Amino acid sequence: MTVFSVLLYTMLGVGSLLAVGRLALGPSLLDRVVATDTLLVIITAGLGVYVALERDPHVVPVLVVVSLLSFVGSVAVARYVGGMLMRSSEDGSGDPGLAPPGTGQTGPRSGERRGE
Amino acid sequence: MNDIDSVPDWIAAGCLLVGAFLCLTAGLGVLRFPDVLSRMHAGTKPQVMGLLLIMIGGMIRLTGWSATWMLLLVGVFQVVTAPVNAHMVSRIAYRRRHVRRDKLLVDELVDAERGAELRAGEQGERGDQPADAPGQPGDPEADRTG
To answer: Is A115 contained in some domain?
Structure first.
């Protein structure tokens, strides 16, 4: 069953590499938040595959901790970005560098839409 | 890992295979999809299903109740927290205008946002922000914390 385990780890590794690619490319901060969450859940899945294949229950608490950590990290960064959004829209300094360069401002800004 | 010979072990192997494939799908969707909302859709739904299947495979393979309950805890926790996470990220993404509006079929939030802006203009308040949002106008705490 070595072929089976190699197949499993290859799928998980390719998935995590794709998530790392989005983490490196991602034009905005929120893309990177989503990619980090995906990467951490794939790491959790990899630990779960190891536990299941080797029948080794020692890694299971690590799995609980990684799962908790991914949730706390994503929610913390999302709250932080929301705070940046409110502060930047209030003091009129505009974009704090969060928008993607190409696709970010496809919709009208809130100030302009009122005059339509 | 050389002891996949009984029926439960084959069921567990199938669960692990489908779960790993769903994780691969999640990574592919996160890389290939065009904007934040669809990336988040790819990063939450197949992700949770794949992790649940892998946890079920681990529960079948492991003997001993404590490890089984911990794997169940991980699965339940993922089911509970993934919607919260996705909701927060997509809410911020919609307000930051990271959404490709030309790819949306229905955008029900446009009317709601417009109404919130109108109400905010009348009452001197802003939209549906959390109560501890920084920099509320007329909030003395915001001035204190700078």
So the answer is: no
How many domains is chain A built from? 1
User: Is B11 part of a structural domain of the chain?
Assistant: yes
Query: For A61-107, how does the pLDDT look when each residue is reduced to its tens digit (9 = 90+)?
Result: 999 999 888 888 888 888 888 777 666 655 554 444 455 444 444 44
Running DSSP on this structure, what letter comes out for residue A71?
H
Tell me if B39 sits within 8 A of B30, measured CB to CB: yes
For residues B91 and A90, what is the distance between their CA atoms, to the nearest angstrom? 18
DSSP-based helix, strand, coil % in chain B, nearest 5: 75, 0, 25
**Identity (one letter) of the amino acid at B56?**
I
Residue B27 lies in a domain: yes
Amino acid at the residue B66: S
Nearest to A34 among B40, B77, B137 (CB): B40
d(CA B4, CA B95): 51
How far, rounded to the nearest angstrom, does the alpha carbon of residue B1 sit from its chain's CA centroid?
A: 33
CB contact under 8 Å between A41 and B51, yes or no, is yes
Domain range for A69 is: 2-93
Q: How far apart are CA A113 and CA B15, in angstroms?
A: 50
The residue of chain A with its CA nearest to that of B17 is A8
pLDDT in tens, B101-110: 777 777 777 7
In a domain, A82, yes or no: yes
Answer for the pair A2, A54: CB distance below 8 angstroms, yes or no: no
Q: Is the ipTM of this complex over 0.85?
A: no
